[in-house]
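WP5 quarterly update. Target: Putative 5-methylcytosine restriction system component-like protein. Source organism: Nitrososphaera viennensis EN76. Length: 437 aa.
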Amino acid sequence: MEENELIEKIKWLNDPNGGNISMSLLAGVDDVFINLPQNKELKDAFKLSKYRENGWKWHQLVRVVLEPPETKQYMYDRLLSLILKHRRSYEAYFEIKNDVGVFRIPNPLADLNKLEILYMQYFAIYKKIVDEIHFDYPRIEYYGPGIRGKIDWTKTLTKSPMEFPLAFSASVRKREFDTPENILLVLCAEWMRRESIRLLHTQFLEPLTDYKIQLLKGVVQKTRDILQRFPLPSVLNASRKYWDLSHNDTRIKNLEDETRRRINQNLVRNPTYSLLLNWIEEFRQLNMSSISEKTPSRHIIEPIENLDTIYEIWIFMEFVEFLFEKGLLVDFQLGNDPHCKFEFNGHIVIFWYEKEFAAGGPNAWIQRHKPDFTAMIDNEIIAIFDAKNYSKSSSISETRDKMLAYMTNLDANFGALIYPNHPKNWMILIGVRELKL
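Structure tokens (predicted):
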């Protein structure tokens, strides 16, 4: 039985129209189900799989296979929104390296469907603006034989002092469409076209899927049509000097600032231009310009092995959000060593994600350990936390033993396990006294 067949078999066993076996039985304590004599073929397939080789228990595999897709998507969406909110630059991201590959959060290449969503939003904005496009109506000075606008008789007679004037000085209003907001409207289409073409010509280490290739080709064609059919040539021509600039260039930011000022002063009254400014910020967050041939193309939620990793990072980011909301957050860093700092009782506490402690080092005694979360003051470990995305039917004894090993090896006085589906009162569950700081 191949690994993909093993996965499908687990799904079939749980399917009401298949085996109709509940998840609590399939993933029961001590893996009773897999050890039943009639399930020998299933057990053998699991023992030969990469999951068993990587130390997985049967109940862990069942849990991640049967996790509802909407639950996984919610965790990822919430995690992504928190990273985008708190990261210090558009280039900052979580990088995860494990047995199934390298993954980044956020990853504009893996989240390429976001580009499609942004294009659809842009096209709706584009139509509303073009249907009611803003233009300036300034007065310009005119001097000529025709009578236009409001004649300035003083200037006219000064230029023809001895005879009846055959030319007239006047103030004439003229429509001007090449305003900052309209230039930005064109630039947005050019950004999507340019970045999509670049990605199509990039030789990625992990080739793009057919879906992503067709998505990019579609964006190229649609944005090209907009640029070729734009109804105001003067705006298109005025925008061209910005086409080769990065969308983070100061000159682009100046256009945005000027547009924002004009909106605030009611010089631009079409509210859709405000939506355009919001759209530009969302496009910046996608950060397509950071994509290179080394950027991993797979989405972190694709391999089932990453479910627990997503859960752990989500918990970490929720803690960052909690500190921020309470006004306690001092610093937050992504990159190679994700961590945050906060002040508590006059001390600066560093809260690390997956900080590794080498055996024989200043903190670890006899074994290398890398807890999910570690709280430290200076070089002293004050608390260790381990997050487990277990179901209600899962045994906690194994993870409890793991936490005790952490605490012993790292000389920590406090350890806590984070579960989504267990009661808050652990004394009822495990019959021990509550630990207090």
